[in-house]
Write a structure and sequence with these properties.
This protein is an alpha/beta fold and 260 residues long. It has helices spanning 26-38, 45-83, 88-91, 96-100, 111-130, 171-174, 216-224, 233-241, and strands at residues 155-157, 161-168, 185-188, 205-208, 228-230, 245-249, 254-257. The chain is built from eight helices and seven strands.
Length: 260
């Protein structure tokens, strides 16, 4: 896959800088080799490492191709909605089955009116569900009676430290206005490929509410050397959302509001 580990082509005629192949640290390599032999496999730790690197690259490339087509499909849905007087926010409350039912037939004359009624019903249901607070993990019935918010440990990327203004991006706001993100620590809820465009905005750091060590944005931040805290959870993320500035210290594993 040309253009780096995730298959993205390099823009313009900029020279391609070869990446140093990731390897196990010397103190780990011997342990890995011993474990492989212990379980009766014949490949080496180096072979395993190469397989992992290639698998991650191909996984990201496939995700990129899939989301590219998904994005095109969503753009067509937006055009369809605009034709019938429904904006993006309204469409988000319309079940996909309601749209797929039109794949082989034209909408009835009263389709838009029926869609608006369904959208209003689902919006009310969404607001009701959003008002219910639940724990991240439910172990017993008691967890539904007394909700304890768990403080998660984020996945930190790089060893860098950055102090900058905090900027939370809300999906339905991005369609109408976009703040200046240069140098900012950007807060987004999901660590998914739909936010790859952030890497072209010169941001100073990234914080997400959800996501893990193998999330798309974790891998991309590592590639770009961008400091990040992925998967902060509700408490940390909401605490940062109301702050004007934030501290992101990956080496010390700290992410918190900061008074400039």
């Amino acid at each position: 896959f040309a253009g780096g580990p995730t298959g993205h082509a390099n823009a313009g005629s900029a020279p391609v800088v070869p990446r140093k192949e990731a390897t196990f640290p010397s103190e780990v390599a011997g342990v890995v080799d011993n474990l492989i032999r212990e379980y009766g496999f014949t490949f080496s730790g180096t072979d395993l490492n190469r397989f992992i690197v290639r698998a991650v690259r191909l996984r990201e490339a496939v995700k990129f191709e899939f989301t590219k087509n998904l994005s095109a499909a969503l753009s067509l849905l937006v055009e369809f909605g605009e034709y019938h007087g429904l904006n993006r926010e309204s469409l988000s409350f319309l079940p996909i089955e309601h749209l797929l039912a039109l794949a082989n037939r034209s909408p009835a004359a009263d389709w838009a009116a029926g869609a608006r009624k369904l959208i209003d019903q689902n919006r009310i249901r969404y607001e009701l569900v959003a008002a219910i607070s639940l724990p991240d993990l439910i172990f017993s019935e008691r967890d539904l009676e007394v909700v304890a918010l768990q403080r998660r440990r984020p996945n930190f990327v790089t060893q860098k430290r950055v102090v900058a203004r905090a900027c939370r991006l809300v999906t339905n706001q991005m369609t109408t206005s976009m703040p200046d993100l240069a140098g900012a620590i950007v807060l987004i809820e999901n660590a998914d490929p739909g936010f790859d465009w952030l890497f072209g905005k010169g941001i100073g750091g990234l914080v997400t509410k959800f996501g893990g060590a193998a999330s798309h944005m974790t891998i991309r931040c590592a590639e770009f050397g961008l400091p990040a805290a992925i998967g902060c959870g509700e408490q940390i993320f909401e605490g940062l959302s109301g702050a004007e500035s934030a501290l992101l210290d990956c080496a010390e594993q700290r992410v918190e509001p900061y008074a400039l």
